[in-house]
Automatic annotation (TrEMBL):
<feature type="domain" description="CBS">
    <location>
        <begin position="7"/>
        <end position="62"/>
    </location>
</feature>
<feature type="domain" description="CBS">
    <location>
        <begin position="71"/>
        <end position="130"/>
    </location>
</feature>
<keyword id="KW-0129">CBS domain</keyword>
<dbReference type="InterPro" id="IPR046342">
    <property type="entry name" value="CBS_dom_sf"/>
</dbReference>
<dbReference type="InterPro" id="IPR000644">
    <property type="entry name" value="CBS_dom"/>
</dbReference>
<dbReference type="InterPro" id="IPR051462">
    <property type="entry name" value="CBS_domain-containing"/>
</dbReference>
<protein>
    <submittedName>
        <fullName>CBS domain-containing protein</fullName>
    </submittedName>
</protein>
<keyword id="KW-0677">Repeat</keyword>
<dbReference type="Pfam" id="PF00571">
    <property type="entry name" value="CBS"/>
</dbReference>
Length: 140
């Protein structure tokens, strides 16, 4: 199975000049806890609901501060033709639950997001389910 078979397609994303409040509103409206930030042509960072709690609220940031000030700049991704087994191992190694999905190494267009939940929803065998559970154990 490949990433493109389980990923969320056409993800929402925000310009990297938005405020923390705008990201929180987008998360509420979209029912997500993760938003990629872009400069219009490329992903410059990602922000999670945890980033808002730990890096913004806990550090006394204003909701009107730029979201990029609390976003994770190290953008983790995979490609849509990557195998699910490789993606699960990558998530476990990086201790994350989700990765951006790019179309290919040449264009690097954002085409989706894949989460451990997406993969779990498509588990058809016990071995894959065990890998998902193992990867989830590594997440903090």
């Amino acid at each position: 199975m490949q990433v493109k078979e389980v990923m969320t397609k056409q993800p929402e994303y925000l310009n990297d000049d938005v405020t923390i409040r705008e990201v929180a509103n987008a998360m509420r409206d979209n029912g997500t806890g993760f938003e990629p930030l872009t400069d219009g042509t490329k992903v410059t960072g990602v922000i999670t609901d945890r980033d808002i709690a730990v890096r913004a609220v806990a550090e006394g940031k204003s909701p009107d501060d730029k979201a990029s000030s609390v976003a994770t700049g190290k953008v983790l991704y995979t490609f849509e033709d990557e195998s699910i087994d490789d993606v699960i191992q990558n998530m476990a190694n990086e201790q994350v639950q989700r990765l951006l999905v790019l179309n290919n190494a040449e264009d690097k267009d954002l085409v989706g997001i894949v989460t451990l939940g997406d993969i779990a929803d498509h588990c058809k065998d016990d071995e894959l389910a065990k890998k998902v559970v193992s990867a989830a154990r590594h997440y903090h």
